[in-house]
Design brief:
Elements lengths: L37 H4 L2 H9 L3 E4 L17 E3 L2 E4 L5 H13 L2 H4 L10 H15 L7 H11 L8 H7 L2 H9 L8
Parallel strand pairs: 1-3
Antiparallel strand pairs: 2-3
Helix pairs in contact: 3-5, 5-6, 5-8
The structure holds zinc ion.
Amino acid sequence: MNATFPAHPPSALRASSPLPGEIGGEGTAAPGATVVRIADIGFEAPSALLARHGLELVRVADNAAIPGSYWGEPEAGVIASRVYARADTPVHSLLHEACHLLVADPARRAAIHTDASDSLEEEDATCYLQIVLADAVPGFGRARALADMDAWGYSFRLGSARAWFERDAEDARAFLEARGLLPRPA
Ligand SMILES: [Zn+2]
C-alpha cells in the first residue's frame, strides 16, 4: 500500500487507526519526498536508542516485506516490543512506530501487531515523543524530524509539525509527563 495519511482532527496527526470517513484522505507523501532514512544514519544508533527503552529493532532485508507495517513498506512495522525496519525506512517512521509501543499501556504492548494506536490521545503523544527522541539520534535531530514529518504528509491542525509541537501539543506533553515517558532535561 502506498503511504497515505489521513488528515486528523482534533489536533495532530497521523493515526495508525484511520477514523471513519478518513481513509483515503489527504496528506499523501510527495513522490520522492526527501527524508532521512536509516541508510543515511545506520542501524546502530536507533538500535541502541530502542534498546534503552526496552524495544528491539529488527533489520529487514532490502526489498523484503516489513512485518507489522501498517502503512506498508518502507514504513516501519511493530509486533509486541519489536520494531521492524529496512535500510530505506524513514527515520521518522521508525521513531513513530517505536513511540507507539512506548506510549501504549505496558499491559497491552505484548498484544500489539501492526496497528499500535489505541486512541487519538495516544496518537498525539506518539507524535510528540518521536520529536523529542529524535534528538537522541545522531544525524537526525528535532529540526529534521519536524521537517521530515511535514514532507511525508503528517497532518496538523496548525499547518506544520513545528507549529503543532510548539503551540498545540499541551495535551500530548501532559499525557507523556503523567506516565514518566519524557526524558529528563540533560
Ligand atoms: Zn501513529
